[in-house]
């Protein structure tokens, strides 16, 4: 699936914070649509705080250790493309504008910091909110007759049965949040091994 950037992405003022409140609100909405659309099309689950794709988008690293920076050392971030930079028109969004865009995404539940205390660990991009993802995952479980079954994290991310689903390839930090939401809804129980979440039983 490819993503076609809208014309406004080629408009230099788009990369400058607009002083008019109504124009700025529209600017934030356009930025949100672009980020979510691009990340969905390219299955990018995590962005660095500066707008680069996290290098490996590792599926196996969990966020149980708040001090673990392996997910997103900025030196590991993909340098070829940055969502906040358009080399064609030689424009880059300011730090202030980037912060406002990220805050807007978080407010609308379309992004979450992996670790708000250490933002270098990256920003989860949620083209579906966590609650929407929870519905999508459980609907698949229900319609495929897997209620009462136990699935590993790996099977949900890369299993043969799930590979055609939209959540296939989902990064571990996002998947854990989705499963925790299902637990709160009384639809799942998490299974742990040595303190780490290894699987889930769907109810």
Automatic annotation (TrEMBL):
Molecular function via GO: protein homodimerization activity; structural molecule activity
Pfam families in the record: ESCRT-II
Protein name: ESCRT-II complex subunit VPS25
Family membership: Belongs to the VPS25 family.
Gene3D superfamilies for the chain: Winged helix' DNA-binding domain. Chain C. Domain 1, Winged helix-like DNA-binding domain superfamily/Winged helix DNA-binding domain
A GO BP entry: macroautophagy
Residue stretches in coiled coil: none
Family matches, as SUPFAM superfamilies: Winged helix' DNA-binding domain
Keywords: Protein transport, Transport
One cellular-component annotation, GO: ESCRT II complex
